[in-house]
Write a structure and sequence with these properties.
Shape: globular
Structural class: mainly beta
Order of helices and strands: HEEEEEH
Helix content: 10-25%
Number of helices: 2
Largest sheet: 5 strands, antiparallel
């Protein structure tokens, strides 16, 4: 039974989405359908957590919009996700960055930048 579930999940898995980790700043292009029209809407923010694995993986992205914190839970393998780009890699020492919710202003978006492997070589 597990092999059958893994086979079905493998067909629904997307390979064009990069690996994102908590602390990364990402820009996600989402398809929005308004009536008969369809457009792309960008959502850029810090990944404060991820949940699940395989086809059911979701990430929680937080941004500050007009002084108000906005969070979206985005299913990574959804057909409504057009693209995910990592703007900045962040160094986080924990899996969930919920402490960013208490911060205001620029401090709410501050996560140390992760050094890339190519820069060290």
């Amino acid at each position: 039974m597990d092999q059958l579930i893994q086979l079905v999940e493998a067909t629904q898995q997307r390979s064009d989405i990069p690996e994102v980790r908590p602390g990364d700043t990402v820009r996600i292009q989402l398809k929005v359908i308004e009536g008969e029209k369809e457009r792309l809407q960008a959502f850029e923010g810090v990944v404060i957590g991820d949940k699940g694995m395989g086809a059911s993986k979701t990430i929680t992205v937080r941004k500050i919009s007009h002084g108000v914190g906005v969070e979206r839970i985005i299913p990574v393998n959804s057909p409504n996700v057009e693209s995910v780009t990592v703007v900045r890699s962040g160094k986080a020492r924990r899996a969930k960055l919920f402490y960013l919710r208490k911060r205001t202003g620029k401090a709410a978006l501050k996560v140390k930048e992760r050094k890339s492997a190519s820069a060290e070589a």
